[in-house]
Task: structure prediction
Amino acid sequence: MAQCTLLGTTILAFGQAHPTSTTRLGAVMSLGSDSILLQPAKERLNMLLSVECPGLAKIVLIGDGPARKALTDDGSPVRSYPDSISFRFTIGSRTAADEMQPNEFETKASADHFQSNLHFRLRVFHGIHSTTYDPAEVTMLGVPADIPYDERIYHFTFKLKDIPVDDRMMLEVLDEQGNRVGKFHLQIL
Result:
């Protein structure tokens, strides 16, 4: 599956091949896209994910590689991720496709049922240990799930406390049985 490391050794979200010595994060940033092909129906669904977090816009990254530091505008070190991070996830056949080869996913569900019954979780990695978080709230935007449609948009928020800024995060998209459909990465340092 396609993955996008937000920040680390490569800054893909900003379209740069190499990190710059100073980078300001944004309140809204793309975390990438992926595609799946539902089998045996042969229906393609494209996924887009963005992070929405005003607290990230207060972070400036200084330096490169292992010397990289996260600071606030006044130069104070950033020690942890913001306490609340929201995501906007779009899935559907009308969503633009970036992936040439979609990942195949076996399901008997129709595309509409499949995309209308997704779940999300956030895994936070600290060294070799990980902690899993469920969203504090999930909202479906646009057309309600009980009306058939070719696209669904979810907005969900995770409440976090004292997650060190050098931890890595992976957002997992799950079908209604809990099988992982997609994953997207978020990393500041």
Q: What stands out?
A: The longest helix spans residues 111-116. The helical segments are 111-116. The chain has a mean pLDDT of 89. The first strand starts at residue 22 and ends at 24.
